[in-house]
Amino acid sequence: MKAYRKSAIDSLIPHLGQVCAPSFRRVALNCQRIFNVPVAAIGLREHRHLRLYFAGESQQRLLMDDALCGLPLTIPAEQIQIQDLQQVPDDLQPPLALALGVRSYVGVPIFVGKQLLGSLNIADHQPRHFEVAEVQRLRDLAVWTGALLELHL
Predict the structure, then answer these.
(1) Bridge partners of 49?
(2) Which of 35, 31, 92, 33 is nearest to 43 (CA)?
(3) Pairing between strand 49-54 and 80-82?
(4) Burial class for 87, CB neighbours closer than 10 Å (0-12, 13-18, 19+)
(5) What pLDDT digit, counting tens, does each position of 27-51 carry?
(6) What is the spatial distance between Cα 23 and Cα 31, in angstroms, rounded to a whole number?
(7) Which of 11, 42, 92, 124 could lock onto 24 through a cystine, CB 3.0 to 4.6 A?
């Protein structure tokens, strides 16, 4: 695996997002089907922002602090799992999650080499406990997504 300078990768992330967007949409769509969830997205870090790629044609750019999908990037190398977002204090609930009606969430980091570039995220409108095997499968898909990104560097 090649070693990449963080600054070099940071400057390439918007380009990587454009190039990989169709594949990101397919990964998100597959995650919706595999995990039977209404929301799935890949988030790529763009400095202090996060660009989310959903299963459809839509994408959204948010401040990292405003997106639930930013948590795996602010707490590096950790999966984040929330069984019921309504149990989280109101002032800590991200606006996009509330707008989408998210109740449960799992996000895992996406790495290229040792560089943390993004997150793979699934969410449900119902409180839900995601099983260990489900989270591991999501992690495996995140590794595959990191390998896809690396192909374009």
Answers:
(1) 46, 63
(2) 31
(3) unpaired
(4) exposed
(5) 999 999 999 999 999 999 888 888 8
(6) 12
(7) 42
Nearest to 35 by CA among 128, 149, 145, 147: 128
Beta carbons of 21 and 148 less than 8 angstroms apart: no
| Residue 136, both tokens | 């591991």
Q: What is the pLDDT of residues 71-124, one digit of tens each?
A: 888 776 678 999 999 898 887 788 778 888 899 999 999 998 888 889 999 999
Residue 1 has pLDDT above 50, yes or no: no
Q: Which of 74, 72, 49 is nearest to 60 (CA)?
A: 49
* Ramachandran quadrant class, 43 (left: phi over 0; alpha: psi -120 to 50; beta: rest): beta
Nearest of 50, 102, 98 to residue 72 by alpha carbon = 50
Question: Tokens 């397919």 map to which residue?
Answer: 26
Are β-strands 49-54 and 115-124 bridged in parallel, bridged antiparallel, or unpaired? unpaired
Report d(CA 126, CA 123) in Å as an integer: 9
User: What is the arrangement of strands in the sheet containing 80-82, beginning at the earlier edge strand?
Assistant: 59-63, 49-54, 39-46, 115-124, 104-112, 80-82
Q: Which two tokens stand for residue 118?
A: 């993004």
